[in-house]
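Design a sequence for this backbone.
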């Protein structure tokens, strides 16, 4: 009985780290999705619901981007996880400045910064 108990403890402690930790690249992907989805939704709603000129819409989108970067908590989580912010910022900027059809970000671009 004691041998089984020690065997259980040995196995548990070996796999505990595997079970409890996320793979770093998946962590960046998860944090990136937490930022991108609400941002994309809000930008598309602003573009869809605005009946103003293109310049007014661009100004409203830029104001939204500034407000989003200051107040959205998920962006701080993405940065504090050590993930690369350069490509994410480029993608978010592309959504505002263009129609968004050619804006792409790939899983491999949301990675930990060395």
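Sequence:
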């Amino acid at each position: 009985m004691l041998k089984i108990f020690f065997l259980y403890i040995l196995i548990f402690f070996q796999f505990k780290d595997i079970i409890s930790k996320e793979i770093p690249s998946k962590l960046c992907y998860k944090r990136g999705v937490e930022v991108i989805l609400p941002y994309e939704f809000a930008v598309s709603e602003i573009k869809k619901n605005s009946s103003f000129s293109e310049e007014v819409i661009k100004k409203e989108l830029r104001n939204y981007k500034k407000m989003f970067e200051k107040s959205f908590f998920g962006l701080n989580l993405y940065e504090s996880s050590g993930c690369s912010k350069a490509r994410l910022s480029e993608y978010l900027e592309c959504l505002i400045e263009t129609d968004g059809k050619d804006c792409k970000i790939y899983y491999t671009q949301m990675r930990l910064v060395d």
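Residues 24-49 form the longest helix (26 residues).
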